[in-house]
């Protein structure tokens, strides 16, 4: 009996093996067939016949091809049906290969494991095969910027997991398919966040049936098509929407009142249609930034009241909309208002922009109205244009405000001071003054929420986010340069991007396809204000980069010239070698953290560092422009904080102790030793230090999105909904738990507050500034006696009274942070303490403990605040009077995790999705599934992690 089973097993094993190696052979054959079908495949494909050995751009698992990433490889040819053999394929990215042409093979339906089909900006044409609907695992389908024709296949509606559907910028025609009896349609895509169909030739109505209340759409981009009929009233059912672009179609009828229900919309474009009827009531769009209703024939209407009540508006474009009457001065007090375009209306009376207009106001264009007077004229920085109004047709034509709009010079990354250095083309000077071969392309932002495209602040945030993403993705980028931001006809903001390689000789193919993939897969996320984007990459000339490298040796020339010249060359070579040697020595010194340690200064043996680097004073001054004022990003009791950029492009924050607040060498050493040992994804990590020329500086990683306090106060422009706040609470709690329970020796933070919790580019919370922290030293001691430090409002009263510091003091401060998270109020406001305020307002018998008036109004705009009561209970337990009654940080972590589960998702999967370390180990795949930066609610996505 046992023997028979044994035989059976053996047979099965052999069978599996045969089957397996056949499948594997199929993969090899298919890959070789694709190689033959394409020109310019990577040279590494010539060496071995096994694509899984070391073919660039190909990744395998168990001998089967699972990933093909060949974006921006200059491939030429067709995507043949051979691809259908790769039945284990999960990711296919062939973007930015403009010479890949032909139609999309219908055999592609065999790729049942494919999650990402990314063919952005290639030369594909012909109709989309209906078989696309059989790609059951697909999450991202990006077929934008090709020349596809024909209709959108209704079968796409069958791809239940589809989250990202981008068909924009093709020549698609026909209607938008919706389900009907047995026929599938796009209304079935309940997990989809993105319908990007702009720049096509779609016709017909936008079907009423397309929108349902249980959809999760965030962006609908239908601009620049030939859609007709009315805007369906069902649009108002999709409460998750943030960007709505229906402009540049032939839509008719009146705007349905239900549009006023879209309370999360930040960008609304209905311009350039044939809309009629009354001026829409948009008073409900309370977070609206960008509104464009221009060029429609609404009924003549006086200025609607929502002109002055939409507090988040940056941009109001309503030219040619039949507006009449007088503009209220209150419009110009909207705090973030930047541009107003009300040309070609019948506005009349006196223009009054009030005494305190928004300080971001750039331009008010009122050309061709009936305005007869203008009272406020002292605001030189604001450009007012009244040409074509009665006020300009009389005697005052010479006034500024009667001239045409000024042209402004576009933004460009400021070159650092590179002296007279220049590069021979095709090399380009990088912002760090090096000549190399950049990868270049255009970022096209399809719906930015700002219009002041001359303000450099916004581009600084963009370039920071690019640099830090490339770092996280471990891409070999030295620096980047942004230039020439401009709006094109359909209001896309286009910015030229140059990415400079770390290696002077240029990027290799792995580097380029990695960079290209970070854009094509939407793994890179710009700051929220930039909204949805698409990148178009230019060809990268690998041969040029290789050539440029070789020709620098100059050997050939040397042999051809006379001996006299040779002598000169030899001397020059000698000098060169000598300088190189000096450079090498200096480089060695700089890379050794011990070389600079000042042993004579009584600071003991060289510090035992864990990955932290010693910087010289000279280096840090170079990285910070000599500690210039423009690099200063903060000031504290201890000194100043500066922002700097390392040669490898990493952005750093440098805490420079001011004279008089430096500590002894020994203490400083102890501190950096301690800090360099602390590594956790919810703690800001130490990059290095400087102990040189009497200075003491700590160098930290720079965290892009600033402090939680900034976000709560609305300063950073990042909106925090309930889920985001829970995630932040959990992250910060885990950071503190690590300090208390896992750091050795344990560390008490002593200054936990919302100002010391930072948010990275993916809104992961990172606890900062445990520099003043006190190590508990001897693990047997449970408290240390020390001088009281901390911040009013967060301080543990028990510690204040007894000066006995324990971990429970941090727990108290954290309780205050939790209350701040739900109320967005300062701990002490108008003399009232937040803890007291919450306790007074609280009534446990009522819904949400009756805290409606105390809660931050933004938190619950849309979501149900599930578990809020538990959250409040937890906060109040943390601020119990005596430490013994407070929970430990690990209790706090568990409780927050429980609340998150109540809200329907797994905090562990969540933290994995948010963790940078996980990202790097997973390769740069699928970041877009964690869409948290521009998705208001990051919790509904069909991420792989969720589905596990
Ligand atoms: C606009 O809609 C709001 C409700 O969202 C309503 O309170 C207000 O009266 C409406 N305004 C007009 C002018 O209809
Ligand atoms: C402005 O236009 C409105 C509506 O057309 C009209 O009622 C009003 O009298 C005009 N005001 C002036 C000062 O011309
Ligand atoms: C530039 O933008 C920043 C942030 O968006 C803002 O604080 C600042 O006031 C703007 N500057 C001008 C001149 O508008």
Overview of the structural elements:
The chain has 948 residues and is α/β, with parallel strands linked by helices. Among the domains are: 16-150, Alpha-Beta Horseshoe (Leucine-rich repeat, LRR (right-handed beta-alpha superhelix)), CATH 3.80.10.10; 154-299, Leucine-rich repeat, LRR (right-handed beta-alpha superhelix) (Alpha-Beta Horseshoe); 550-589, no CATH class; 613-701, Phosphorylase Kinase, domain 1; 708-916, Transferase(Phosphotransferase) domain 1 (Transferase(Phosphotransferase), domain 1, Orthogonal Bundle). It is 26% helix and 20% strand. The strands form 11 sheets. The chain has a 15-stranded mixed beta sheet with strand order 2-3-5-7-9-11-13-15-17-19-21-23-25-27-29. The protein has a 7-stranded mixed beta sheet with strand order 1-4-6-8-10-12-14. α13 packs antiparallel against α15, α13 runs antiparallel to α18 (889-902) and α17 (868-878) packs antiparallel against α18 (889-902). The radius of gyration is 31 Å and the shape is globular. The two termini are 39 Å apart. Mean pLDDT is 81; it is low at 13-18, 548-605, 773-787 and 910-948. The chain binds 2-acetamido-2-deoxy-beta-D-glucopyranose (3 copies). Residues 359-360, 452, 455, 457-458 line the site of one 2-acetamido-2-deoxy-beta-D-glucopyranose. One 2-acetamido-2-deoxy-beta-D-glucopyranose (NAG) binds next to α5.
């Amino acid at each position: 009996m046992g023997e028979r089973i044994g035989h059976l097993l053996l047979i099965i094993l052999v069978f599996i093996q045969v089957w397996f190696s056949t499948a594997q052979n199929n993969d090899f054959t298919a890959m070789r067939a694709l190689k033959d079908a394409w020109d310019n495949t990577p040279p590494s494909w010539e060496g071995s016949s096994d694509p899984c050995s070391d073919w660039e751009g190909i990744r395998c698992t168990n001998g089967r091809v699972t990933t093909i990433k060949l974006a921006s490889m200059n491939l030429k040819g067709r995507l043949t049906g051979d691809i259908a053999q790769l039945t284990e394929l999960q990711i296919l990215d062939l973007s930015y290969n403009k010479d890949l042409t032909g139609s999309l093979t219908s055999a592609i339906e065999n790729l049942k494991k494919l999650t990402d089909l990314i063919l952005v900006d290639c030369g594909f044409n012909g109709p989309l095969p209906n078989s696309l609907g059989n790609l059951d695992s697909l999450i991202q389908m990006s077929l934008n910027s090709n020349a596809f024709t024909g209709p959108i296949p209704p079968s796409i509606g069958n791809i239940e997991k589809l989250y990202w559907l981008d068909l924009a910028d093709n020549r698609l025609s026909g209607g938008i398919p919706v389900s009907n009896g047995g026929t599938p349609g796009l209304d079935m895509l309940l997990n989809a966040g993105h319908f990007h169909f702009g720049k096509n030739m779609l016709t017909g109505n936008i079907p009423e049936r397309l929108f349902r209340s249980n959809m999760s759409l965030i962006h609908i981009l239908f601009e620049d098509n030939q859609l007709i009929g009315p805007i369906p009233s069902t649009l108002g059912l999709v409460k998750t929407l943030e960007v709505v672009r229906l402009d540049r179609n032939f839509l008719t009828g009146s705007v349905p009142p239900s549009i006023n229900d879209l309370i999360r919309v930040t960008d609304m474009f209905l311009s350039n249609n044939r809309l009629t009827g009354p001026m829409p009531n948009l008073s409900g769009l309370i977070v609206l930034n960008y509104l464009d209703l221009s060029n429609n024939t609404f009924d003549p209407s006086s200025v609607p009241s929502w002109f002055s009540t939409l507090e988040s508006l940056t941009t109001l474009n309503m030219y040619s909309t039949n507006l009449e009457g007088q503009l209220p001065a209150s419009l110009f007090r909207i705090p973030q208002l930047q541009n107003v375009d009300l040309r070609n209306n019948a506005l009349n009376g006196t223009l009054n922009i009030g005494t305190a207009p928004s300080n971001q106001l750039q331009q008010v264009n009122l050309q061709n109205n009936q305005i007869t007077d203008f009272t406020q004229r002292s605001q030189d920085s604001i450009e007012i244009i009244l040409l074509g109004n009665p006020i300009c047709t009389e005697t005052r034509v010479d006034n500024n405000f009667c001239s045409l709009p000024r042209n402004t010079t576009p933004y460009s990354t400021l070159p650092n001071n590179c002296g007279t250095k220049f590069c021979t083309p095709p090399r380009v000077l990088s912002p760090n003054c090096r000549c190399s071969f950049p990868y270049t392309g255009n970022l096209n932002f399809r719906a930015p929420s700002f219009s002041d495209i001359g303000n450099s602040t916004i581009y600084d945030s963009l370039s920071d986010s690019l640099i830090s993403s490339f770092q996280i993705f471990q891409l070999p980028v030295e620096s980047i340069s942004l230039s020439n931001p401009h709006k094109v006809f359909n209001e896309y903001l286009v910015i030229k991007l140059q990415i400079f390689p770390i290696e002077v000789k240029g990027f290799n193919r792995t580097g380029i396809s990695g960079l290209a993939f970070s854009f094509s897969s939407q793994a890179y996320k710009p700051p929220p204000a930039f909204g949805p984007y698409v990148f178009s990459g230019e060809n990268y000339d690998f041969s040029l980069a290789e050539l440029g490298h070789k020709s620098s040796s100059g050997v050939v020339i040397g042999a051809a010239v006379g001996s006299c010249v040779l002598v000169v060359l030899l001397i020059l070579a000698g000098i060169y070698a000598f300088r190189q040697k000096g450079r090498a020595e200096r480089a060695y010194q700089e890379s050794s953290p011990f070389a600079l340690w000042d042993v004579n200064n009584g600071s003991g043996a060289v510090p035992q560092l864990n990955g932290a680097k010693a910087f010289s004073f000279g280096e840090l001054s170079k990285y910070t422009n000599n500690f210039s004022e423009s690099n200063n990003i903060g000031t504290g009791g201890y000194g100043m904080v500066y922002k700097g950029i390392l040669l490898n492009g990493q952005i750093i924050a440098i805490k420079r102790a001011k004279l008089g607040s430096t500590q002894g060498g020994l203490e400083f050493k102890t501190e950096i030793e301690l800090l360099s040992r602390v590594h956790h994804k919810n703690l800001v990590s130490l990059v290095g230090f400087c102990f040189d020329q009497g200075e003491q500086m700590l160098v930290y990683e720079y965290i892009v999105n600033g402090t939680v306090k900034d976000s709560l106060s609305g300063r950073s422009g990042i909106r925090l909904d309930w889920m985001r706040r829970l995630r932040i609470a959990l992250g910060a709690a885990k950071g503190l738990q690590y300090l208390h329970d896992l750091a050795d020796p344990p560390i008490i933070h002593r200054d936990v507050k919302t100002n010391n919790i930072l948010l990275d580019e993916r809104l992961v919370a990172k606890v900062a500034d445990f520099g003043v922290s006190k190590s508990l030293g001897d693990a047997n001691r449970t408290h240390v006696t020390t001088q009281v430090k901390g911040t009013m409002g967060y301080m543990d009263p028990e510690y204040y009274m007894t000066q006995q510091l324990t971990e429970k003091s941090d727990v108290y401060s954290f309780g205050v942070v939790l209350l701040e998270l739900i109320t967005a109020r300062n701990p002490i406001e108008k003399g009232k303490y937040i803890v007291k305020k919450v306790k007074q307002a609280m009534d446990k018998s009522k819904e949400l403990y009756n805290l409606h008036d105390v809660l931050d109004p933004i938190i619950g705009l849309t979501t149900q605040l599930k578990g809020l009561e538990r959250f409040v209970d937890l906060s109040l337990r943390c601020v119990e009077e005596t430490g013994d009654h407070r929970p430990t940080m690990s209790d706090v972590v568990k409780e927050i995790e429980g609340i998150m589960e109540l809200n329907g998702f797994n905090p562990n999967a969540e933290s994995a999705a948010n963790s940078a370390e996980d990202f790097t180990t997973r390769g740069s795949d699928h970041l877009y599934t964690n869409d948290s930066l521009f998705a208001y609610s990051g919790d509904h996505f069909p991420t792989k992690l969720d589905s596990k």
